[in-house]
Amino acid sequence: MDPELEAFIPLFPRADLTDPVNDRKNFAKLAASAPASDTTGMEIEDRTVPADPDVPVRIYRPHQAQGAIVWLHGGGFVMGDLDTEHPWATRIAESSGVMVISVGYRLAPEHPFPAALDDAYAVLTWTAEHAAELGIAPERIAVGGHSAGGGLAAAVALRARDQQGPPIRFQLLNQPGLDDRQETWSQQNFTDTPWFTRDKATTAWRHYLGSQPATPYAAPARAADLSGLPPAYIASAELCPNRDENIAYALRLLQAGVPVELHQWPGTFHGSQAILSAAVSQRQIAELGAVLHRALAD
After folding, report:
1. How far is CA 75 from the centre of its chain?
2. First to last CA, the chain
3. Using one digit for the tens of pLDDT, what is the confidence trace for 217-249?
4. What pairs with residue 262 in β-bridges?
5. CB-based burial, 149-165: b 16+ in 10 Å, e otherwise
6. Closest-CA residue to 123 (of 54, 77, 27)
7. Beta bridge partners of 171
8. How far is the C-alpha of 279 from the C-alpha of 294, rounded, in Å?
9. Bridge partner residues of 174 (DSSP)
10. DSSP string, the chain
11. For residue 33, with 0-12 CB atoms within 10 Å meaning exposed, 13-18 middle and 19 or more buried, which class applies?
């Protein structure tokens, strides 16, 4: 493990997702401890996307942004909101020059699948329909997210393809949760890795799926056909249960003819890019911004 990251492990609050209400409070405290980000020259606006029910979003608009990404926060489908994602949405907008539309989707277990996906898809549709009002080109819209949010972004791309929905130019998937079956080597062996473990993944999927069987729109790795999807960037962490499903999904996309950039970050663990004092975390955040800039702003 990267020694700069390892030093922070004792500071992490417990979050095994067995007590969602308390875990959300701890997650919010952890996010609030992140260093303030630079919002100079950036407009930030809270809005509500009309849907059933309405979906709260926070829009980060850098000067002369030409494209937008519908951004979905992490938190195991159970934790996270617009405020906890604020430090990271701000940094991605600043480093990419792309408008970030952060989505406050409904959380499990109170709102199991497909609630979060429906919210995310509603925001994608709204973004495409209101591109002129937002000041972006409709052909420059991406989807992306961290962890559970990365899995949701992949599912949004699948649904948009299948339903001939809004065109998506790019998908930015950072350590995404893609496969509820947990059959990979990393899922079966990473039982005590920092912040995210096999048991935590099991609990997250149980909350998200509820009593329903998993479908490709819930767990994108289950999709039989990945052809026709948008180009993708997929990042995985070495010491993360999701690692092998991330790599496998990237390979399957490539085999289906989808352009993919895959970056496996050695010495890192799930979510460790939030430790901004570490050099490897700074590289990870910078790369997310640079990749998004190339995909949408160039």
Report:
1. 9
2. 35
3. 999 999 999 999 999 999 999 999 999 999 999
4. 234
5. bbbbbbbbbbbbbeeee
6. 54
7. 143, 232
8. 22
9. 146, 235
10. --HHHHTTGGGPPP--SSSHHHHHHHHHHHHHTSPPPP-TTEEEEEEEE-SSS-EEEEEEEETT---EEEEE--STTTS--HHHHHHHHHHHHHHH--EEEEE----TTTS-TTHHHHHHHHHHHHHHHTHHHHTS-TT-EEEEEETHHHHHHHHHHHHHHHTT-S---EEEEES----TT--SHHHHH-SS-SS--HHHHHHHHHHHHTTSPP-TTTSGGG-S--TTPPPEEEEEEEE-TTHHHHHHHHHHHHHTT--EEEEEEEEEETTGGG-TTSHHHHHHHHHHHHHHIIIII-
11. exposed
Nearest to 116 by CA among 125, 127, 104: 104
Q: Would you tell me how many other CB atoms lie within 10 Å of the CB of residue 267?
A: 16
Give the pLDDT confidence of 92-146 residue by residue, as tens digits: 999 999 999 999 999 999 999 999 999 999 999 999 999 999 999 999 999 999 9
| 19, 40, 207, 261, 280 from 264: Cα distances, Å | 31, 32, 28, 10, 12
Please state, in angstroms and as integers, the Cα–Cα distance from residue 9 to each residue in 76, 192, 195, 287, following that order. 19, 12, 8, 24
Angle at 251 between CA 168 and CA 215, to 5 degrees: 65
Instruction: Please tell me the CATH superfamily of domain 3-297, with its number.
Output: Alpha/Beta hydrolase fold, catalytic domain (3.40.50.1820)
Sequence-ordered list of residues with C-beta below 8 angstroms from that of 173, at least 6 positions apart, any chain? 144, 145, 150, 151, 153, 154, 232, 233, 234, 235, 246
CA–CA separation, 11 and 59 (whole Å): 31
What number of residues does the chain have?
298
What's the pLDDT score for residue 298? 65
Q: For the chain, give every domain's residue range.
A: 3-297
